[in-house]
Every structure is written in C-alpha cells, then in structure tokens.
Amino acid sequence: MSEDLGYRPNVSAVILSSKYPEKCEFFIAHRSDIKDAWQFPQGGIDEGESPHEALIRELYEEIGYNDIEVIAEFPSWITYDFPKIVSKKMYPFKGQKQKYFLVRLKEDTRINLSAHKSPEFEEYAFVTYEELFKRVTYFKRRIYKRVIDYFIKEGFV
C-alpha cells in the first residue's frame, strides 16, 4: 500500500433520484466552504470501517438520509491529487483514493443538508448528465465522466 501514501481513503456516491429508471437525474450539492464547488457526496473512511459502511454513514452526515439502494460499485479505486485551493485544507493528504458507488434514492426521500452539526453543503439539485458536467467543480469532471460512463457502459444507468 506504499503507493497510496498521502492519499486519503474516501467513498463517493453517484446518486440517482427516486424517479430512476423512468428519468435519469443525478444529485449534486454545492459545498458551503468552497465557492462555486458542486460535487457528489463523499467522505473519508474511518479506521476499521468498510467502504460500504462509510458510504452509509457519509450519506447520513451529508444529506441526512441513507436509506438507499446500492445499484453498483466502480470496480477499482480512483486516486487523484488535490488542486492547490483544496490541498491546504486537506493537509497532510496530497489527494484522495476513492471508491465510487452508484445508488438510487428510495421514494419519499427527505434530503436534509443540516442533519449534521457542521453542514458540508448549502444547496442541492438533481441534474441531467449534460448539466452535471457544466456545474461540477473542474477537477472532478474527468473522474466523474469516467465513473458514470462506466456505469452507463455496464448497463446500470
């Protein structure tokens, strides 16, 4: 695991609305601590926690809801370096090693961005595939495209 030194273990949720498969909408949220930064919910994996356990915990902390259907998991970890604007905040990590999950919200979902004592997001939206790449922060676009295109190719989306 020496190649992963300096990379924070992390999970990320590609969330489809409860209208899927009739309508394909992706959940993105605007970070409260970085201007104009829209992204998928994500978060670190705690010591002794599996990626799936971290996914469930992080969804509850970030969107106040974790009763989801896991549709698929990206087959490998994705590692990336933080841009300078983020690296100071995330020191001592130089980047993240992420496991992506494709999940679907269940009917009657009630998103609550204030469920945690220090909310990470200030607003959210459900967007189309095309709109997603116009709104998400620049350094996540290439990774998100790789992950979503994999889920599309495999027939999950």
Features:
4 helices; three-stranded antiparallel β-sheet; 8 strands; single chain; 31% strand; alpha+beta; 157 residues; five-stranded mixed β-sheet; Nucleoside Triphosphate Pyrophosphohydrolase
Written account of the structure:
The protein has four helices and eight strands, in the order E-E-E-E-H-E-E-H-E-E-H-H. By secondary structure, it is of the alpha+beta class. It has one domain: Nucleoside Triphosphate Pyrophosphohydrolase (Alpha-Beta Complex), CATH 3.90.79.10. The mean pLDDT is 91.
Largest sheet, strands/sense/barrel: 5 strands, mixed
Helix content: 25-40%
Tell me the domain tally. Answer: 1
Which residue ranges are poorly predicted, with pLDDT under 50 across at least 5 consecutive positions?
Answer: none
> How large is the count of helical segments?
4
Cα(first) to Cα(last) distance is 32 Å
CATH topology: Nucleoside Triphosphate Pyrophosphohydrolase
Task: Give helix and strand order, one letter per element, not per position.
Answer: EEEEHEEHEEHH
Name of the top-level CATH class:
Alpha Beta
Strand content: 25-35%
User: Please, what is the CATH homologous superfamily?
Assistant: Nucleoside Triphosphate Pyrophosphohydrolase
